[in-house]
Amino acid sequence: MTDIFKDFITELAEINEQDMNRIMSCISVYNVKRNTIILAQGEVCDKFYFLEKGCMRTYYITEEGQEKTRLISFDNTPVTVLTSFINLKPSVEYIDALEDSELLSMSQTDFFRLLDEIPSWALFYRKILELAFAFQNNRIEDLVTLSAKERYEKLLKERPHYIQRLSNKIVASYLGISQETLSRLKSK
């Protein structure tokens, strides 16, 4: 199961076998059932998570009780609330499993210790931060500059599996629109 994570790491940073073994010795592997909350609002995200297989969602709940999905993660992706992980402050977000999932985790303590000990792990971390920044910046640009129809069409073109695998409620929350608006867009 951890070979997927090793491949992900080596795509971002060249890591020798000895260092990879040190990294992998800090990894815990577990299966998560659908609808399991991995991180709740108010908890500290003290683990770096990597989703090997399945689907997870990172979201907020507004004061009015509305869910606002920030991130949908499928196979082979990190799933961590970085602001909470970096600062060890309570998260304002939730992470939950939308499907039965295979998840890896590493404690924040081990993660940051390895940054000091393995230069290529530090490069990996920098690349993760760059990817996260670019993705979130593009999400914000889309939410601010595109109409609901344009956001839906872009999602349909670039990530059709979202429409196929996720409920309308989740897709609408991700797009920042109501379920009714999503239904109208789908029917056109």
UniProtKB/TrEMBL annotation:
CDD domains: CAP_ED. Residues 11-115 form the Cyclic nucleotide-binding domain. Pfam families: cNMP_binding (PF00027). Transmembrane segments: none annotated. Gene3D superfamilies: Jelly Rolls. Signal peptide: none annotated. This is Cyclic nucleotide-binding domain-containing protein. The lineage of its organism: Bacteria, Pseudomonadati, Bacteroidota, Flavobacteriia, Flavobacteriales.
